[in-house]
Amino acid sequence: MIEVKNLHKGFGDVKVLKGITTTFHPGKTSLIIGQSGSGKTVFLKSLIGLHIPEEGTISFDGMINTKVTNEEKRQWRQEVGMVFQGSALFDSQTVAENVMFPLKMFTNQSQSEMLDRVNFALNRVHLKNSNKKLPAELSGGMQKRVAIARAIVMNPKYLFCDEPNSGLDPQTAIVIDNLIQEITDEFNITTVINTHDMNSVMEIGEKIIFLKDGRKAWEGSSNEIFKTDNEAVVNFVYSSNLFKKVREAYLKETK
Amino acid sequence: MNYIEHIGKYFLMLVQVFKKPQKNRVFYEALMKEIEELGLKSLGIIIFISFFIGGVIALQTALNLDSPFIPDSLIGFAAKRSIILEFAPTFCSIILAGKVGSYITSSIGAMRVTEQIDALEVMGINAISYLVLPKVLSTVFFYPFLIILAMIMGIFGGWVTGVLSGLFTGADYIIGIQTTFDPFLITYAMIKTLVFAFLIATVPSYHGYYVKGGSIAVGKASTQAVVWTIILIVLANYFLTQMLLT
Questions:
Q1: Where are the domains of chain B?
Q2: Which residue of B104, B106, B116 is the best one to mutate when testing the A interface, meaning the one whose CB has the most A CBs within 10 A?
Q3: What secondary structure does DSSP assign to B104-139, as a single string?
Q4: Is A160 helix (H, G, I), strand (E, B) or coil?
Q5: Nearest Cβ partner for B118 among A78, A84, A90
Q6: Second label for A205, Cα 20 to 30 Å away, from A8, A224, B84, B164?
Q7: Which residues of A touch B (CB under 8 A)?
Q8: Domains and CATH numbers, chain A
Q9: Is A69 helix (H, G, I), strand (E, B) or coil?
Q10: CB-closest option in A85, A90, A106 to B116
Q11: What values do phi and psi take at B26, rounded to 5?
């Protein structure tokens, strides 16, 4: 479980996060949503330790990641998987080498053991016969799958995804969403996704956190987001006519 | 950002660079790859340029020493000195700063703007050491061989020029090369090469690692890296010459 308490982060005079408190539970997919500039990316980067909070704490199963030794931090990082917005695959390495990289760095497994694990991870994301391809030879959706395979190859306890659907067609976006949720359930991972995609919100949002101006403006599930009367959430989530109609239909049905 | 801040940040980066590699097997693979990229792939251009510049040096010397009181062997002597002292270590390092420096900055810079460096950091990898240390070691260990090759090719180019142009004989040129050979000159050239190799690896790495923005920023950083590397090579050349030869 990840517990965030009173998190503050700024850059110079600009305060980006202003006292966020929340929790993320194992086996659940949590989504962070909000307008551009609301602090989603800074929040996610603070969770994964790329930004050091100015105030407040983030604890991972009781371990506060800013109050540990370097060795403990290194151990903790091996429990974290991250899928970046642009996939962040290493250009000069093949698909198999990308997925194998964390194993090479942090385990003493033999080449065949590592290959078995790589094949397992690639099969899990339904990607076969691509081991020898370079990232540039793959489509956006395939690159995302490789990034997910690399993120899960070390059996992480925590999985973070920064806009995993950006740049993907709607069909592929749903495939990626479902894949992340399946993996979260299967391996009991604490998954946190930063997204703009309202389909993801409706489909896989077991817990949704809405950020506005660096503050948590709302928190709830995908069912609750239909019923909420929080003006900021309604204006953001139901800004398109399609989603307005979906909401109206849902509310009619559940009356 | 002012210059003092850049210098401070550069030295802080160097502290991170020289930390023990996290996995020897991965480090060895990266080192071999960098030796190929930064060293072996520079062989062709160094051989080509050294040969022709050596020829030009010999030609210019021959044309400017056109006097019956000056023996032709002096052409070989002057060409050898010019090539060993300045042309091979300094001129070749400036060429390598352009070729290798822009490659280093653009490759690391592209990794920065596409979040590949963030990915390394999230995995708990010391990204600076992982990316820069193999480059530093490959240039520092390989460039002395490259510069010695440049010396040999430059002197050979001078000999070929003499033979083909008829301005001096090959025999006179060889006598000149053998006249008052001072081994310290090679030591001096090697010391300079090591310093320049270090600059060629670290200054562009610094510019690439701390780049901010997108592809245009990477392009600008590559240009800046090459300019600053050349400036530092020229300054280091002056101070090393002052310290070692005067």
A1: 22-245
A2: B116
A3: HHHHHHHHHHTTHHHHHHHTT--HHHHHHHHHHHHH
A4: strand
A5: A84
A6: A8
A7: 48-50, 73-74, 76-78, 80, 82, 84-86, 88-91, 101-102, 104-106
A8: 2-79+158-254 (3.40.50.300), 92-155 (no CATH)
A9: coil
A10: A90
A11: -70, -40
Distances in Å between the Cα of B22 and the Cα atoms of A107, B58, B98, B111, B228 are 11, 50, 31, 20, 31
- Phi, psi of A16, rounded to the nearest 5 degrees: -95, -50
Residue B127, CA distances (Å) to B14, B17, B31, B118, B204 in order: 12, 9, 15, 8, 15
Tokens 């190929």 appear where? B36
Measured between CA atoms, the residue of chain B closest to residue A159 is B122
Instruction: Give the count of beta carbons closer than 10 Å to the beta carbon of residue B38.
Output: 24
What is the number of other CB atoms lying within 10 angstroms of the CB of residue A245?
11
For A76, nearest residue in chain B (alpha carbons) = B124
pLDDT tens for chain A, residues 1 to 255: 899 999 999 998 899 999 999 999 998 999 999 888 889 989 999 998 888 899 999 998 888 877 788 788 888 888 899 999 888 999 999 999 999 999 999 888 999 999 999 999 998 888 888 899 999 999 888 999 999 999 999 989 999 999 888 888 888 888 888 888 888 998 899 999 998 888 888 778 889 999 999 999 999 888 888 888 888 888 888 877 887 788 788 778 877
Does the pTM surpass 0.90? The reply is no
List, in order, residues 6 or more apart from B209 with CB less than 8 Å away: B13, B108, B109, B112, B117, B127, B128, B131, B132
- Establish how many alpha carbons lie within 13 A of residue A122's alpha carbon, considering only the half-sphere containing its beta carbon: 23
- Distance from A151 to chain B by nearest Cα, in Å? 9
Predicted complex ipTM? 0.84
Q: How many CA atoms lie within 13 A of B58 on its CB side?
A: 34
| Nearest alpha carbon to residue B131 among B190, B45, B211 | B211
Collapsed DSSP state (helix, strand, coil) of residue B237:
helix
- Whole-angstrom Cα distance, residue A205 to residue A45? 20
Are B123 and A158 in contact by the 8 Å Cβ rule? The answer is: no
Q: Chain A contact for B1, CB < 8 A? A: no
